[in-house]
Amino acid sequence: MGTELGKYKLCVSARSADKEILKKAQDGGIVTTLFKYALEEGIIDGAIVSGPSDEPWRPRPFVATTVEELMTSRGTRYNLSPNVSFIKEATRSYGLDKIGIVGTPCQMQAVRKGQLYPVGLRDVPDKIALAIGIFCMENFPYQSIKQLVEDHAAMKLEAVKKMEIGKGKFWVYGERGQVVQLPLKVTHKYEQPGCHVCLDYVANLADVSTGSVGSPDGWSTVFVRTKNGDDIWSKAIAAGCFETKPIEQVKPGLELVSKLANEKITKNQKTVEERAKFGVNKALRNPYISPK
Amino acid sequence: MADKIKVGHVHMSGCTGCLVSLADNYGGLLTILDKYADLVYGLTLADVRHIPKMDVALVEGSVCIQDKTSVEEIKEAREKAAVVVAVGGCACYGNITRFGRGGQPNQPQHESYLPIGDLIKVDVYIPGCAPTPQLIRNVCVMAYLLLKGNKEQQALATKYLTPLMQLAERGTEACGCDLMYDIINQGLCMGCGSCAAACPVRAITHEYGKPNVNREMCIKCGACYAQCPRSFFNFDVMNEFEGIMELIDGALK
Questions:
Q1: 8 Å CB contact between A68 and A17
Q2: Distance from CA of A128 to the nearest CA of B (A)
C-alpha cells in the first residue's frame, strides 16, 4: 500500500452509537454523527451538507445549523450536489465562523485549494473547522440517476428507498421491498465525464474521510488524516459517539480499499495521459500541469 | 530588519479596493511590514513621488492608454521592479473597466482601459474583485520566501507561485465563459460549486450540478476560473496544505 490512500494518522472500522442516525444512514452513519457531535460541542457552528430538494433523489446543498436539519441529510444520493457553492455564503448570510463541510474527494480538493489559493473566498480559509470527505469512485448527473432508475431498473424515483453501489453492482431498493441490481457495465456510460480525470478515491485532503469499502455491512471505514481531524475524532470517541473495530480485524479490510483506489487512479491516470494526444497534435487541457 | 524585501503599491485605474484588501489583513499586514517587507512606494501610504527600485510591485488597476502618466508609470514599474504582480481583476483582466467607454467628466476622452499585461510583461496574477486579503497575504509571504528564504523555502515558494505565474502567461482575457471554454467544454467539470462561491457578483448558479453563468452580470474578474480546482491543481502544493497553512499562520504571528 502506497500513496493511494493519502496521508492518515489512523484508520478504523466504525459505526455510529446513535440508533436514530443509523435508521437512515448509508452505512455506519459516520458523517452525520461526527457533525452532530461537532455541532453540539460548538466545534462547528453549522455544516454544509446535501439534503432533499423538490425533486426525488435530487440533492440540494444547504447549511444545517441544527441536529434536526442535519438528520434530513442522512444517506447517499449518488448525484451532483455542489456543496462548495455555499462555502462563502455560510460565512455571510448564515454567519458561521466555524464551518463543517462534507463532500466527495474533488470537493475536498476544492476546499483545500480555496484555503491555499482563496481567489474569491474572502475570509473563508480560516473558517473551515471540519472537512469530511467521502470515498468516491465516480458521480452521476441527476438525469443519469433518473435514467438508471426509471429506464434500466424500471422503478419510479419516488418509490426508491435506498441506492447503493457495492459488490460490483448498482443496487436500487424500493419502498415495497423490491430490489433491482444493475451491473456497473450499464452505469459506466452515465458517469459524469469530469470524474474520469480524478486521481483521488478516499478523499486524501479531508480532515476525516469515510466510506463503506473495507468494512462489513452497516459499518464504515474511517481515515483520520489531519491534526484537526484527529483532535475532533478522538474527542468524539471519548464521548462515546462511535463503536470501532481495528481495521486489521474486519473483512474485507484495507486491502480492498487499496485495490479499488489503485484501480481508480490507474484508470484515470491513463485517461489524463490519453487526453494529451486526444486530437491530431492537439491536446485536451491538463489541470494538473497548468491553467493555460 | 535589513533582510526585508522592498514592495511598492502602484495604483493604475482601480477603485483602491485591492489596497483596502491588503490592509484588511489587519495585524497580519503590520507583521508583514514589520518582518518581511518595506513599503517603498504607495500613493496613500508612502510619501514617495517617483517609482523607486523595488523587489515586488503590486499593481492595482488597469491602464488608461489615453492617460500619458499612467502609461509611463506602468512601464517604469516594470523597469524598476524585479517582480510585477497584477493585483486584482482590473490589473489582470480589465475587470469592470473593460466596460469603460469614456464620456465621463472631467476626462471624457479617457475611454480605453487595458489590463497591465497588454503593455508590460507580468510575472504573477492575483485575480478577483476584490482580491482576498488572504491570497494577497499568502503571495506576500511566498514572495519573501522566494527572495530571502533558504533553499527549501525557495523551492516551496516556487511551487506555490507557479500556477499564479502560469495564469499571467495565460493571457489578459477572463470571463465566466472560461468555465464553459476551459472547464466544461474540456470535459473537466465535476460540479463542486467553487465557481459559484467565488463569484463576487453572484452571476453563477448551478443547474443540476453544473455552473450556469449569467453573462450580463459577469464583470470579468477571473475569480471563478482561478478558483476552480480544474483550472489548476498542483498536487505538490495541495498535498502539503496542512504544513503550508501552518507556515503562513506562523509567519504572521
A1: no
A2: 12
The percentage of chain A sitting over the pLDDT mark of 90, rounded to a whole number, equals: 98
Label residue B2 by pLDDT band (50, 70, 90): low
* A25 SS3 class: coil
Suggest the residue from A50, A54, A85, A274 to mutate for an interface test with chain B (most B CBs closer than 10 A). Answer: A85
Chain B interface, best mutation among A89, A91, A119, by max B CB count within 10 A: A119
Beta strands in chain A (DSSP E): 10-16, 46-52, 59-64, 99-103, 128-134, 160-166, 169-174, 179-183, 208-211, 220-224, 242-246
- CATH code at A93? 3.40.640
Q: What is the rounded distance in angstroms from the CA atom of residue B222 to the CA atom of residue A160?
A: 42
Which of chain B's residues have a Cβ under 8 Å away from the Cβ of A279? none
Number of compact structural domains in chain A: 1
Domains of chain B in sequence order:
5-172+241-251 (3.40.50.700), 178-227 (3.30.70.20)
Give B187-242 pLDDT, tens digit per residue. 999 999 999 999 999 999 999 999 999 999 999 999 999 999 999 999 999 999 99
